[in-house]
Each structure stands twice: as structure tokens, then as C-alpha cells.
Design brief:
24% strand, single chain, two-stranded antiparallel sheet, CD59, three-stranded antiparallel beta sheet, Snake_toxin-like_sf, alpha+beta, 107 residues, 2 helices
């Protein structure tokens, strides 16, 4: 029964990660982030990335089918994760998942 519960939780979390999500899109966004100056674009699912590119004081945000994280290029796959503020909803989901697993196997 415990194994079934853990497998179900994993399937739900992994299934959610393949859903479409929104990214911010703007050209020359500037270094001080103002979300009202950006548009929202909907990705096509878990194979896409939100991207933020920084070159000096020029910041652009968009989404892409591929992304190679490097100096000045930041990639993520979560709802509005290319904002100035780090989005940690997936980290929170993983903490909850492991807490539930620990609780289930403790009792």
C-alpha cells in the first residue's frame, strides 16, 4: 500500500512537469524588472524552456525549444520562472514529496 502511494505521488508530480507553462517575453527588459512591460507566452509543454539572457545591461526574456545554460543565459522549466525572482515551486513540491515519503515509511 505504501509503495502504491509513493508511486502515485511520483506519477502526479512527473506528469505535472510536462504540462505547458507561461514564460515572460520582452526585448531589452532592463536590469530593474517590471513585469508590466513584458508579455506572457504559453509554451508547448515540458520540452520547452523559459529563457533569460543577460548581456551587460541588456536583458531579454523568451521561451525556446532548446536551451544551453551558460554565462548570461539562464534556462528553467516552470511557470513564469524567467522573472527576476527565483520561482521555487518545483523545489517546494519535491520537499513535500520527500516529507510525505518519509512520513509514510516511518509509520
Amino acid at each position: 500500500m505504501k509503495v502504491l502511494l509513493v508511486c502515485s505521488l511520483l506519477i502526479v508530480l512527473l506528469g505535472c512537469s510536462n504540462a505547458a507553462f507561461q514564460c515572460y517575453k520582452c526585448n531589452n527588459c532592463g536590469t530593474s524588472w517590471d513585469p508590466s512591460k513584458a508579455t506572457l507566452v504559453l509554451t508547448e509543454g515540458g520540452t520547452n524552456y523559459c529563457v533569460k539572457r543577460v548581456s551587460g545591461t541588456t536583458v531579454t526574456k523568451d521561451y525556446s525549444a532548446t536551451c544551453s545554460q551558460s554565462n548570461g543565459v539562464y534556462c528553467c522549466q516552470d511557470e513564469l520562472c524567467n522573472s527576476a525572482i527565483s520561482n521555487s515551486s518545483m523545489n517546494f513540491a519535491m520537499i513535500v514529496l520527500f516529507s510525505i515519503i518519509g512520513f509514510v515509511f516511518k509509520y
